[in-house]
Backbone:
């Protein structure tokens, strides 16, 4: 199986040197569940796209520091590509920014939350159980890093999970789209360094609470397994 990664961020060189880019992180995570996976990466933030949407079995839109409602040309182009994938019912996964842009591109609404930054480890309660959720869980914890949120789901979308801070932390559209606000691909070490670099932006209280949360367990392997189950489900 081949997964096409639509990379929506150029990380700072010092972060890439230590952790890799978002595509590298995603490949490492998913390969721990299924080592035989194949990948190809398209830096959509730089205008790079596949020649044929059928050259991969599934597509994944990564996170980004950009907002889904920004007016950048590359975001508009990516939204059009998402609509094309959805129109042909290609399997599509969205992570953080990807989760938000897919929602907006397909008729939902994204806004900067008045609740402020969500950072660190947060737990979401599963509100809609599906067959691809194996092993089944009532809740899951992931690293998060966002101000924007999906405040209205697209038509036909089902809310999968949420919490008091982010009500739509996961959703599904029919059998071909699955999205998560959290970052299963992030390591604690990457999250810690990323937060250190944005300490003044986050504010001291938010920063300290987020750092303290990093001692909690994370369900990144569970979500990786769910993503692959969903992609392979008919």
Residues:
């Amino acid at each position: 199986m081949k997964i096409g990664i639509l990379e929506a961020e150029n990380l700072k060189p010092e972060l890439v040197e230590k952790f890799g880019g978002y595509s590298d992180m995603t490949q490492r995570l998913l390969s721990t569940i299924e080592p035989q996976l194949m990948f190809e990466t398209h830096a959509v933030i730089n205008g790079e796209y596949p020649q044929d949407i059928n050259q991969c079995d599934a597509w994944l839109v990564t996170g980004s520091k950009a907002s889904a409602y920004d007016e950048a040309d590359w975001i508009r182009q990516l939204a059009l590509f998402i609509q094309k994938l959805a129109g042909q019912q290609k399997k599509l996964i969205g992570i953080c920014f990807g989760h938000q842009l897919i929602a907006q591109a397909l008729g939902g609404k994204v806004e900067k939350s008045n609740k402020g930054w969500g950072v660190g480890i947060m737990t979401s309660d599963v509100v809609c159980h599906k067959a691809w959720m194996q092993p089944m869980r009532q809740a899951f914890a992931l690293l998060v890093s966002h101000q924007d949120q999906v405040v209205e789901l697209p038509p036909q979308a089902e809310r999968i999970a949420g919490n008091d801070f982010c009500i739509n932390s996961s959703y599904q559209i029919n059998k071909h789209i699955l999205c998560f606000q959290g970052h299963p691909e992030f390591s604690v070490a990457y999250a810690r360094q990323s937060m250190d670099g944005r300490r003044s932006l986050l504010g001291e209280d938010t920063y300290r609470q987020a750092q303290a949360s990093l001692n909690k367990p994370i369900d990144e392997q569970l979500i990786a397994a769910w993503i692959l189950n969903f992609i392979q489900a008919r």
Remarks:
- The radius of gyration is 16 Å.
- The CA atoms of residues 122 and 141 lie 5 Å apart.
- The chain has a mean pLDDT of 97.
- The longest helix spans residues 73-87.
